[in-house]
Design goal:
The protein has 19 helices and 20 strands. The chain has about 575 residues and is an alpha+beta fold. A 6-stranded mixed β-sheet has the order 17-16-13-20-18-19, with helices on both faces. The two termini are about 40 Å apart.
C-alpha cells in the first residue's frame, strides 16, 4: 500500500519516517541479525537497531499525543519538537554498537534542524546539511572509526546527498543510493565480512532507515537493488548465493573453530550517564584504555556509553567517577562466541531439555530457579537484549530449550534470540507468554521426559489458559481504554489493557480480581512486588475465600518487579 508522500521535512514527516523505519527494520531484523559478524558475532544487530528506532518512534508519538490532548497547546508539534524527541528517544533506548551509532546519527541530524531555527519545516538544502552533520558527528563519537562499517555507509550517503540541488525526495533518494553502493563495498573493506560472505549488518540497517526516508517523501519504498553478497531493499530482502548470509556467517563463526585464539574482550557494557562534557572527555580516555568498540554519544548532560571490556566493573566505576550512570547493562559474550577458543576447557555434555525464562524480579527468579528454569532478570525499564537471551540459552546448555519471554514487548527480541540459538544447533520453542504468571502456569506442567513437541503443546496450553493482570501506578497523564488517567493514579490492567483507574491499590486490585473471576477460574496466583501495601495479599486471599469458595489462591513475593501486583487466573 502506497504511503502518502510528505513534501517537506516537518514534524509529520519525522513521525512518518520513524514509523516506516520501524516497519522496515522489523521486516529486515532477522536478516540483519543473521549477517552480524562485526565487531562481535552475537547475532543481535537487527534487533538492537529495531529497539533503538522503537524508542525514538515512541518518543515522537508521545510529543504528538501531548499536543492532541491539549497538554501542549492546540497546534501540532514543531519540527524542533519532533526531531528533538526522536533524537532523545533514540539516545535513551540505544542498544548495542550499531544502535548507539544510529542514535548519534539521529542526534546529529536533529542538531542541524533545530539550530537552523526552522520550526515549521525544512527543504532539500536543510536535509542535505543535516545528513552531512549526522555522518560527521557519528564518526566523532566512535573512539577508533573503522571503514567498512555503518560509519562508511553514513558518510557515503552524505556525500551522495551533497551533490543534489533539489527537494527532500531527491536528497533522500541520492543518500539512499549512495548508502547502497557503499554497503556493497563493505566486504572489500573488512576481511571478516569478506570471509563470511556478508555485507556489514549495521550498514544494512542504515540502508533500511534511508529507504524509509525515501518512502516518506515519495510515497513508495525504493525498488530492490542487487548488490554483491546480499540483495538489499528498504525492508526485508532475501540474501543471494548458494548459502544464505546467515549460513555463511555461522560457518565462519562456529565456536571453538578458526584461529584458536581469543579475539576480544569478554563483556559488553552499556549505560546512560548524566555528566558534564569535561568529565566525559576523561571518561573516553579511561574506557579507551580498558577495551575496544568504544562509542560515547549524546550531549547536554546526558550520554549513552558503549564499550567492550574484560573488566566490566572497571568500566562502570569509570562512569561513577564521571557522573551518575544508570540503566547499566552488562552482557557476557560467553563461551559460545567468537571471543573464545573452544580449547580453554573440555566441553561438557548438554542436558536434554531446559526452560529459559525472563523474570521481572528477584523473588520470581528464585521461584523459577527452584522449578529448574534458567532465568534472566529484567529490571524495571531495562528489558534484556537478544544477545542476553542467547547467553541465557547457552548457559542452560541443553539440546532443547523452551523460551518464556513473559512480556509482550519482548516478542521481537525473543524471536531473534531463538533464531540465533537455532543457528547454533539448539532446538528452541518460543512460547509467547505475556506475563510472568503465564510463565508460572507453563512451568507447572513442564515435564522434561515427554517428547519435546508434547511438552511445548502442554506448556503453551497452560499459558494460554491463564488470564493475566497487573496493578501499577501511572507515570503520566494519558488516555487509556478505561478513560483518562493522571500521574499517580493506580491502574488495573487485564490482559494488557487498562480496565480500572483508582486511588487505592487494594481496592483496584480487588476490582480487577472480581472482573477476572467473573468469567470463572480454579486457581488465583498473586505475585506481590516490594512497592505494594503489606496487607494487599491478605485482603485478596480473604476475598477469594469469602466470595469464590471453589477457588484456591497462591501467593509469591516478586521483589523489585516494577508492577505492584501481578495476578493470574487459571
Amino acid at each position: 500500500m502506497a504511503q502518502v508522500p510528505q513534501r517537506f521535512f516537518d514534524a509529520l514527516a519525522v513521525r512518518t519516517w520513524c514509523g516506516l523505519s520501524l516497519r522496515a527494520l522489523g521486516r529486515a531484523r532477522e536478516e540483519i541479525d543473521a549477517i552480524n559478524v562485526y565487531p562481535v558475532a552475537d547475532g543481535d544487530t537487527g534487533t538492537n537497531l529495531y529497539l533503538t528506532v522503537e524508542s525514538a518512534a515512541a518518543a515522537v508519538e508521545a510529543v504528538f499525543a501531548a499536543h492532541e490532548t491539549g497538554a501542549a497547546g492546540s497546534d501540532g508539534p514543531s519540527l524542533t519538537d519532533a526531531v528533538g524527541a526522536m533524537a532523545h528517544g533514540a539516545l535513551i533506548g540505544a542498544r548495542g554498537n550499531s544502535g548507539t551509532i544510529l542514535a548519534q546519527l539521529l542526534r546529529g541530524l536533529a542538531q542541524v534542524l533545530t539550530e537552523r531555527g526552522e520550526t515549521a519545516h525544512t527543504e532539500g538544502p536543510g536535509l542535505r546539511l543535516a545528513l552531512r552533520h549526522a555522518a560527521a558527528s557519528a564518526r566523532e563519537a566512535v573512539a577508533h572509526p573503522v571503514e567498512g562499517t555503518v560509519l562508511t555507509v553514513a558518510s557515503a550517503a552524505a556525500d551522495a546527498a551533497d551533490g543534489v540541488r533539489g527537494d527532500c525526495a531527491q536528497v533522500a533518494r541520492a543518500a539512499y543510493e549512495g548508502a547502497l553502493a557503499a554497503l556493497a563495498a563493505t566486504p572489500g573493506q573488512l576481511p571478516v565480512l569478506e570471509r563470511a560472505g556478508v555485507v556489514d549488518a549495521g550498514g544494512r540497517g542504515l540502508v533500511a532507515v534511508l529507504a524509509a526516508l525515501v518512502e516518506t517523501f515519495t510515497g513508495r519504498a525504493p525498488e530492490p537493488v542487487a548488490v554483491p553478497h546480499a540483495r538489499v531493499d528498504g525492508g526485508g530482502a532475501d540474501l543471494a548465493g548458494e548459502r544464505t548470509a546467515g549460513e555463511r556467517a555461522a560457518g565462519e563463526c562456529v565456536p571453538g573453530e578458526g584461529t584458536g585464539v581469543a579475539h576480544g574482550p569478554a563483556f559488553e557494557v552499556i549505560y546512560l550517564l548524566e555528566a558534564e562534557d569535561t568529565a566525559v572527555a576523561r571518561l573516553r580516555r579511561r574506557l579507551d584504555a580498558l577495551g575496544d568498540s568504544l562509542v560515547v554519544v549524546g550531549g547536554d548532560g546526558l550520554w549513552n556509553v558503549h564499550v567492550h571490556v574484560d573488566d566490566a566493573g572497571a568500566a562502570v566505576e569509570a562512569g561513577v567517577e564521571a557522573g551518575r550512570p544508570h540503566r547499566i547493562r552488562i552482557t557476557h559474550f560467553g563461551q559460545g562466541d567468537v571471543h573464545t577458543t573452544g580449547a580453554e576447557r573440555p566441553p561438557r555434555e548438554r542436558t536434554r531439555r531446559a526452560v529459559v525464562a525472563v523474570v521481572p524480579g528477584e523473588g520470581l527468579a528464585a521461584l523459577y530457579g527452584e522449578a529448574g528454569a534458567t532465568t534472566l532478570l529484567a529490571r524495571p525499564g531495562e528489558p534484556p537484549a537478544s544477545g542476553e537471551l542467547v547467553q541465557a540459552v547457552r548457559r542452560a546448555h541443553a539440546r532443547e530449550v523452551v523460551l518464556l519471554p513473559n512480556d509482550a514487548e519482548l516478542r521481537h527480541t525473543a524471536a531473534a534470540a531463538a533464531e540465533q540459538a537455532r543457528a547454533e544447533g539448539v532446538r528452541v520453542a518460543l512460547i509467547p507468554t505475556r506475563s510472568a504468571v503465564q510463565g508460572i502456569a507453563a512451568l507447572a506442567v513442564h515435564e522434561s521426559e515427554r517428547r519435546f513437541d508434547e511438552d511445548v503443546v502442554a506448556m503453551t496450553s497452560a499459558a494460554g489458559a491463564t488470564r493475566h493482570a497487573e496493578v501499577t501506578v501511572a507515570e503520566r497523564r494519558s488516555w487509556t481504554t478505561a478513560g483518562i488517567c493522571q500521574a499517580g493514579d493506580v491502574l488495573g490492567l487485564i490482559d494488557g489493557d487498562v480496565a480500572v483507574i483508582g486511588a487505592d491499590v487494594s481496592e483496584v486490585a480487588a476490582t480487577v480480581l472480581d472482573r477476572m473471576l467473573s468469567a470463572g477460574g480454579e486457581l488465583v496466583t498473586l505475585v506481590v512486588g516490594d512497592g505494594a501495601p503489606p496487607s494487599v495479599a491478605d485482603r485478596l486471599e480473604a476475598r477469594v475465600r469469602e466470595a469464590y469458595l471453589a477457588v484456591d489462591t497462591v501467593v509469591h513475593r516478586g521483589g523489585r518487579q516494577g508492577a505492584l501486583l501481578l495476578v493470574g487466573v487459571e
